[in-house]
Design brief:
Blueprint lengths: L24 E6 L5 E4 H10 L3 E6 L6 E5 L1 H18 L5 E6 L5 H16 L3 E7 L8 H14 L4 E3 L4 E3 L2 E8 L4
Parallel strand pairs: 1-4, 5-6
Antiparallel strand pairs: 1-2, 3-4, 6-9, 7-9, 8-9
């Protein structure tokens, strides 16, 4: 059965009206309704009298909880809440920092300062040592560089994994430490 608005809804997240099956009793809630346990037929009659929909809110409860509401308004309110929650959620970016195996101290400190800023802003940091040509023979220098980087960032972020070599890159990811 269609909700009272007449529009067809794809993939209803809730069972409504006649789609509620296999239920003899329901716990009824809603505005202008005396809350309590009713037979399913009584609940449908109450919803019809108010020209509203009977929506199953908690199907796993015993007896299932149903609410007498306008289903379209209910869906609209849920979408609005989800949109607000999404807007308030913090967006996390992954910032990349690239080193060479023989990175100079000045360049290292410059990149370290940026990594600290990124972690303070709440972003993740992906640091990697890029080996060009035959510089792959300096893998140990890359590991030492990333270990030093991890030690210097210890109070701002924690490494997600151990440095691993993927092709010509040795990668180490950092997550910001929560300030709770």
């Amino acid at each position: 059965m269609r909700p009272r608005g007449g529009r067809v809804i794809k993939e209803d997240p809730h069972r409504i009206n006649d789609k509620i099956r296999g239920v003899n009793e329901v716990r009824l809630i809603g505005d202008n309704v005396e809350q309590g346990i009713y037979s399913f037929q009584q609940a449908m009659k109450i919803a019809d009298e108010q020209n509203l929909d009977l929506v199953e809110i908690a199907p796993t409860a015993t007896p299932p909880v149903c609410r007498v509401i306008d289903y379209q308004k209910f869906l609209y309110a849920q979408k609005k809440k989800q949109k607000e929650a999404k807007a308030n959620a913090k967006k996390m970016e992954v910032k990349e920092i690239r080193f060479g195996p023989q990175t100079d101290d000045h360049d290292y400190n410059f990149k370290l300062k940026h990594a600290i800023e990124f972690l303070k802003e709440g972003n993740k940091v992906k640091s990697y040592v890029f080996f060009r040509g035959r510089s792959i023979v300096f893998k140990e220098q890359g590991e030492l560089l990333l270990a030093r980087f991890a030690a210097d960032l210890a109070e701002y972020g924690k490494p997600d994994n151990v440095p691993n070599l993927e092709g010509k890159r040795m990668i180490l990811n950092f997550s910001p430490k929560s300030n709770k």
